[in-house]
């Protein structure tokens, strides 16, 4: 089979690649529920670690053993948090390796929101930030069940905000004209038309001038073919695939900073809590 798949541009090789992708790229859909992992870690690992001590009162015994409050909380958070980050880092590397062939085709975007935050630097950042959010909620609320619910809600909301809005603005999007649009490996954010004077053409005018299913339709009479006849230009906003690692660094670094701030705030709360 290897000799039949040469050169890479041959029909046999392309068919094999397509068959492979069709069979295995579904893992991206399976990976989508795994994005709940940080929220679950924040709720079940981060929130109870301090909330249970506060709720039951066992913290008083720990504080009388000569450890000091700061050493007590750092020891509790560092051991569990460090273990979770190591496991999350290994998971992120494996996820990146698994989806690598599909990104190379490309049958899957490197910046695909279904997999981006499960890979490399982003996933350990999410796990650490979720754990810190849970620990802070536990120390602030001091009730296990309530802190768990709060941690899950905050981590889930932050994840949705990052995936739906924040991530696409980590760096300014690139804008290009033309009906063909950006490369298939790019993360396309939007498309619009402008008239001769540079003004944006509303969607209802595009639909009225070029009847068809939509601006991405390639059949005769669709907007990409007929709008230039009206003196209009199509524009595309996108993030190129080359920004994968900068985006990983921005997201992972931002979440690390958030975790550090939350741990500092948690230590401050411990010192304010009267024994």
List the helices and strands and how they pair.
Elements: H1 11-24, H2 27-31, H3 37-56, H4 59-63, H5 69-104, H6 122-141, H7 144-166, E1 174-177, E2 187-194, H8 203-209, H9 223-226, E3 233-239, H10 244-272
Antiparallel strand pairs: 1-3, 2-3
What does this structure look like?
The protein is elongated, with a radius of gyration of 25 Å. The protein is 59% helix and 7% strand. It has a 3-stranded antiparallel beta sheet with strand order 1-3-2, with no helix packed on it. It has helices at 11-24, 27-31, 37-56, 59-63, 69-104, 122-141, 144-166, 203-209, 223-226, 244-272; strands spanning 174-177, 187-194, 233-239. α3 runs antiparallel to α5 (69-104) and α6 runs parallel beside α10 (244-272). The chain is mainly α. The chain has 10 helices and 3 strands, in the order αααααααββααβα.
- Any idea what the shape is? elongated
Which series of helices and strands comes N to C? Answer: HHHHHHHEEHHEH
Class of secondary structure makeup = mainly alpha
How many angstroms does the end-to-end distance come to? Answer: 72 Å
Summary tags:
275 residues; mainly alpha; three-stranded antiparallel β-sheet; 10 helices; 3 strands; 7% strand
Short summary of the structure?
The chain has 275 residues and is mainly alpha-helical. 59% of the residues lie in helices and 7% in strands. The chain has a 3-stranded antiparallel beta sheet with strand order 1-3-2, with no helix packed on it.
């Amino acid at each position: 089979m290897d000799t039949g798949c040469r050169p890479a541009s041959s029909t046999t090789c392309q068919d094999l690649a397509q068959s492979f992708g069709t069979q295995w790229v579904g893992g991206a859909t399976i990976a989508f529920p795994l994005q709940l992992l940080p929220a679950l870690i924040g709720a079940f690992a981060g929130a109870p670690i301090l909330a249970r001590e506060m709720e039951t009162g066992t913290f008083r015994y720990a504080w009388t053993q000569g450890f000091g409050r700061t050493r007590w909380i750092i020891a509790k958070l560092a051991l569990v948090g460090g273990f979770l980050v190591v496991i999350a880092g290994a998971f992120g590397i494996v996820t990146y390796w698994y989806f690598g062939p599909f990104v190379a085709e490309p049958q899957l975007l490197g910046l695909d929101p279904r997999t981006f935050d499960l890979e490399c630097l982003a996933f350990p950042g999410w796990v650490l930030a979720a754990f810190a959010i849970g620990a802070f909620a536990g120390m602030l609320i001091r009730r296990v069940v309530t802190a768990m619910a709060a941690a899950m809600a905050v981590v889930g909301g932050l994840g949705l905000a990052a995936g739906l809005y924040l991530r696409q603005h980590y760096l300014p999007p690139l804008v290009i004209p033309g009906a063909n649009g950006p490369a298939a490996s790019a993360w396309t954010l939007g498309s619009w038309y402008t008239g001769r004077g540079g003004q944006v053409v509303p969607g209802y005018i595009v639909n009225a001038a070029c009847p068809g299913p939509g601006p991405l339709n390639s059949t005769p009479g669709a907007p990409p073919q007929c709008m230039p006849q009206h003196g209009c230009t199509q524009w595309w906003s996108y993030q190129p695939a080359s920004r994968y690692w900068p985006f990983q660094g921005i997201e992972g670094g931002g979440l690390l900073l958030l975790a550090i701030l939350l741990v500092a705030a948690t230590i401050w709360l411990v010192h304010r809590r009267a024994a």
